[in-house]
Amino acid sequence: MNRLISIIIAILLSAAAFAQSVPQTVNFSATVRDANNELLANTAVNVRLTFYEGGENGTPVYCALHQTTTNANGFMSFQLNRNVLAYACNGAPNTPFEEIPWENGNYWMHVEYQAQIAGDFIDLGYLELTSGFYAFSANYALIAQKLEGFDIDVANAQDGDILVYNGTTRKWEARRPENIGGGDTPQPGNYTEGTFEWVREGGAAATGLDIFGLEYRNQTKVVYANIKPVEGARLYILNAADYAITDINTLNARLTSETEATVYRGVSVEASATYNDVLATVYNGRTYLIHVTNSTIEVSEYDGYRIITITGTYKMWESAGTASATYSEPTGYTNGYGYVDLGLPSGTRWATCNVGASTPTAYGDYFAWGETTPKETYNWSTYRYCNGDYNTLTKYCNNSSYGNNGFTDNLTTLEASDDAATANWGAVWRMPTQTEMQELIDNCTVTWTTQNGVNGRLFTGPNGNSIFLPAAGHRYYSELYHDGSYGIYWSSSLYSDNTDDAWYLVFDSGVYGMGYDYRYYGLTVRAVCQSQN
């Protein structure tokens, strides 16, 4: 199966210009999928961005090559003008990003993606930049980016829209995060519909099942294929009529009336046949409705092994909806604040509410990294541990180029006196480290959902308990941005490669993972504690 016929990539672009601060940066985050809608997980990738003045065929003025690795969810994130692998590529001069003459206008960005290191770059098209990047020359604060051409309705584009590249039409499409289904075109009910092919030859591992949270279990002397859910997945065997369902909440209501299945044995391994079987799986924050329609049985001419191919169609929703997703009541309390035991390997307990909140759905307070009280304005001039700019840090600095007069202290984790959770809830509570946040992501089923009218992510642990993190947005200067669309939660860990940044957990309705950004931003905090007796 050729997995790289085309690429589907959802890109979140946000540009922030600072009056006197350098470097100027653009956050670039993406979830990468192949033509079969399968995530390119844990994959080394190169992204080449070339800026042209005067149109697609204009003069190249800047080019940067970035190298990163997707996480287990196919998510990658980096900042333009930070940790650049190579400049002056693709025929562009060695021009610093800060010296691009944005005031000239009419700039285009060419996006290319390299799925394999040293492989060919895949052309993902051109974007005309009509407002966002030009704010670097106007000293705006936080910018909405608009795009023209390629069938994008500029009048309706909004700040926070996600650009989805359609690998078939080779065009960019602007969509709201809540309407992303992961496929080439929006589908009714915000789902993606496609075809699948599950293949198993002899005793080799089957292919094509993993995205659905399924695996083919080896078993001798069987008449039917043994297809079972992997750890963390839920399998349901439904009726043929259920494949007509197009609404995720209707499907969730249907699943609540069914008992989870441990195995699907509907396909014969002895003869080719047609079927009308319908399954559902809930896995990795997605819900799949699967229609098994055909199987073919062949014998390999090469080694004589039997080749079993199962085919059909599926519908996929990016979130598990709202009907069956609820957060757990507290497992216990310490210092008067509730926590939930999610069954994580480290034994870390996660608080039920944000710091400053009294319910799981309340946003709570916003803190700059290393500060313990909320404030009116969030920028470098008000940040506690600097003298007014990113390169004048006075604490938590392991690089003299960022320190005030060359200051370094090599501290990389917040001390208790600078921990917003400890300062507000007591010594048993603290902010989670980057490692603990990654553990939460790696060991939980993560679902975009709505609780009591509030959007956010439900993290369901190995033991079935859940916590809800509301999409509380972030504060920049005196304004609140992206509340209801994005959740960004501080860790206690410094981003050591750029000392002016710190790690955070970030999510929207389509993606989730770890990221990093300037320490002065006002973000929410979800506290943790260790096992309580």
Question: What does this entry look like structurally?
Answer:
- The protein has three helices and 30 strands.
- With 533 residues, it is mainly β.
- The strands form eight sheets. Strands 6-4-3-7-8-9 form a six-stranded antiparallel sheet, with no helix packed on it. It has a five-stranded antiparallel sheet with strand order 5-2-1-10-11, with no helix packed on it.
- Strand 7 and strand 8 form a beta hairpin.
- It is globular.
**Relative strand content:** 35-45%
Quaternary assembly = single chain
Shape: globular
Enumerate the strands of the largest sheet in spatial order, edge to edge or round the barrel.
6-4-3-7-8-9
Round the Cα radius of gyration to an integer and report it.
25 Å
| Helical content class | under 10%
How many angstroms does the end-to-end distance come to? 53 Å
Mean model confidence by pLDDT:
78
Number of strands: 30
Poorly predicted ranges (pLDDT <50, ≥5 residues)? 1-23, 138-156, 165-170, 176-189, 320-324
Q: Biggest β-sheet, characterized?
A: 6 strands, antiparallel
Number of helices: 3
Structural class assignment:
mainly beta
In short:
The chain has 3 helices and 30 strands. It has helices at residues 248-256, 420-425, 434-443, and strands spanning 7-16, 25-34, 44-53, 59-69, 75-80, 86-87, 107-114, 122-129, 147-148, 162-166, 171-175, 192-201, 214-216, 227-229, 234-238, 273-283, 286-299, 306-317, 332-334, 337-341, 349-354, 445-451, 454-460, 466-470, 474-476, 479-481, 487-494, 501-507, 512-518, 526-529. The termini are far apart.
